Amino acid sequence: MSGTISKTIEVPVVDGESERYSLRMGPQHPATHGVLRVDLELDGETIMECNPQVGYLHRGFEKLAESKTYAQALILTDRLDYIAAMSNNIGYCVAVEKLLAVSVPERAQYIRTIVGEMSRLCSHLLWLATHALDIGAMTVFLYCFREREILLDLFEELCGARLTFSYPRIGGVRQDVSRYFVDELQRFLDMFPAKMEEYETLIDTNRIWLKRTVGVGKLSGAEALGLGLTGACLRGSGVDYDIRKHQPYDAYDKVEFEVPLATEGDIYARYRCRMEEMLQSVHIIQQCIDQLPPGPIVGPDAPDLVMPFKAPARVEADAAAFGGGLIKLVRDQKLYISGDVYVATEVPKGELGFYFISDGNNRPYRMHIRSPSFIHIGALKAICKGELIADLIANIGSLDVVLGESDR
Amino acid sequence: MYVQYKPKRGLLGTIFQVEILQGMALTLKRLFSKPITRQYPDVKPVIRPGFRGQHALVRDPETGDSKCIGCMRCAMACPSRCIRIRSHKGKEPGAKRKIDCYRIESLRCVYCGYCEEVCPVNAIVLTEVYEYGSYDRPSLYFTREQLLANWDRFVEEKGADMENYVNPFWRPRGLAEADLPAPKRLSVSAEWRGEEQVVGRKWQQQQAAQQD
User: Fold this and answer.
1) Which residue is closest to B116 within chain A, CA to CA?
2) CA spacing 20 to 30 A to A323: which of A178, A266, A373, B132?
3) ipTM
4) Residues 127 to 166 of B: which have CB under 8 A from any A CB?
5) Is 50 exceeded by the pLDDT of residue B71?
6) Does residue A267 register a pLDDT over 50?
7) Is A196 on the interface with B (CB under 8 A)?
8) Domain locations along chain B
9) Neighbouring-strand partners of residue A49
10) Fold designation for B55-189
């Protein structure tokens, strides 16, 4: 499969010769969903060349993580994809647990699956809101934020934050779910499919929406694979790839769900896939609530939040006086396993992978993040060549990029 | 599973613009329902307990001072390294560690709540106060006195029943008592202690079926 796309560009020539000119879109353009700059080479309204420029939001997380313990570096992942922070947290924790061979109790796995899917709903709702706003449907924007607010309130109840959750911890989660949380979530789940129908009434068959999306930004399955796309962008092109299904983590192997696919590979196909994914998320959360087992929420071998390099004698004596437990330290000299691991999880945007090298220290020797947004922005160049400048906006929205994750 | 790609729209629907009329009808219906927008400065949102807001040092009602013992665990756990503690130990035998300086740079803080979770004596707390913006930086570099005053303000705002206040991060919800040091074993409800956990309906049915 080749990753190159050859398109013949037909420029409508009016009155003799055409003139090429360059235009810089962004980084302050509201439709770029953050600080993305796109250097465009235009001929009239046709894009001849499209070079996305990233890096305006670079904060050096990969380097910064090397100076933080594993527990501390968790909070950096909140700020990767800040509209689905919970998914990043979970992806990070799953990776570190695999690296340090920490087990997660079953209840914590179910809770993580619930909050991970809630995070997917949050992210897809915000995507639908902004994508529809970019193409010109203002009402959907407001309706989506109405439902997203309920989810954010639930997150606030659960972990005390609405945006930067830091909710999972290595070896479990930090707080158990309360009765109030489960009841409110159940109410939301009962109500949400009806709201989905509202969005679909507004845009699904709307002729303006169809004009802007059907047949625009087309990608075949081979092209999408070659460009390294993941998530709904890949599934919209007909490639059946979902890490939740094919390499299950947490409780995804214990619940039933389907992976929505479409073969057309245009913006409308991706839109339909994401809408269907939202319904599947509701389905997954419902099953998790029904199957939620009792038990501990933190594993017995979970490291303390203060991750010491080695257990000093004085603290060990203190811990014994305090009764061990959460303040307990692993009493071996060599506390952490050395080695390297790559673990990928399915976040709303696609495949989020964490690659760690550990040298037995309490902090990663190297952390690499394979962020879906970065790779999706790279695909913009291939998708937009030869399309109209108005479709660039629709394409950026459809790829669902978040610049915090891309630049990290 | 393949999604339904092409929505059905008949010829009549296209001619009479039925889908646009349906959308209009939906928005028109919403016009008469109650608005859900909160007019923020006038109407304050309901903050859930355990919200991670402004920092405070808990004032011990017995001594009138902070509970901090200077163990440095919060400073060690802090990801943004915004806590600074200086302490000294008295010369006489059995003397307690005295805190000379306890500072939190709230502008650097990421509000993760690690400090309150690792504190063995529940001395530090992220209160539910969220409106403390300022025009100058020094007022946001909280000193020990400011942090104690923050607690007083929180107690005042919260009103009665602060005797039994337990922050969800002091005693993480659902953690077994044996996993906690003695000062963190605060008295909370059975659900909070993890004894009456919320369990799924299907799980209960399975258990009942197994017992039969």
Assistant:
1) A305
2) A178
3) 0.86
4) none
5) yes
6) yes
7) no
8) 55-189
9) A41
10) Alpha-Beta Plaits (3.30.70)
The answer to whether the beta carbons of residues A296 and A277 sit under 8 Å apart is no
Share of chain A above pLDDT 90, in %: 16
From A89-93, A138-142, A310-314, B62-66, the region with the lowest mean pLDDT: A310-314
Once rounded to an integer, what is the mean pLDDT over residues B149-174? Answer: 83
- Residue A330's pLDDT is what? 45
Which pair of structure tokens corresponds to residue A392?
A: 């660039």
Residues from chain A that touch B7, judged by Cβ atoms under 8 A, are: 204-205
Instruction: Give the model's pLDDT for residue A324.
Output: 42
**Stretch A221-249: mean pLDDT, rounded?**
88
Q: How far is A75 from chain B (nearest CA, A)?
A: 7
| Residue-range domains of chain A with CATH | 61-101+103-300+337-407 (1.10.645.10)
- Nearest residue on chain A to B46, judged by CA atoms? A153
Phi, psi of B192 (to 5 degrees): -65, -40
Given CB atoms, is A293 within the 8 Å cutoff of chain B? yes
Mean pLDDT, chain B, integer: 83
Question: Where in chain B does DSSP place strands (E)?
Answer: 55-57, 83-89, 97-105, 124-126, 141-142
Check: CB of residue A231 under 8 Å from CB of residue A224.
no
Residues of A in contact with B188 (CB under 8 A): none
Which candidate in A86, A167, A176, A237 is best for mutational testing of the B interface (most B CBs within 10 A)? A176
Angstrom distance (rounded) from CA A184 to CA A188: 6
Tens of pLDDT, residue by residue over A165-213, are: 989 988 888 888 888 899 999 999 999 999 888 888 888 888 888 888 8
Spatial distance between the Cα atoms of B177 and A43, rounded to a whole number of angstroms: 70
B120·A327 Cβ contact <8 A: yes
Inter-chain Cβ pairs, chain A and chain B, closer than 8 A: 180
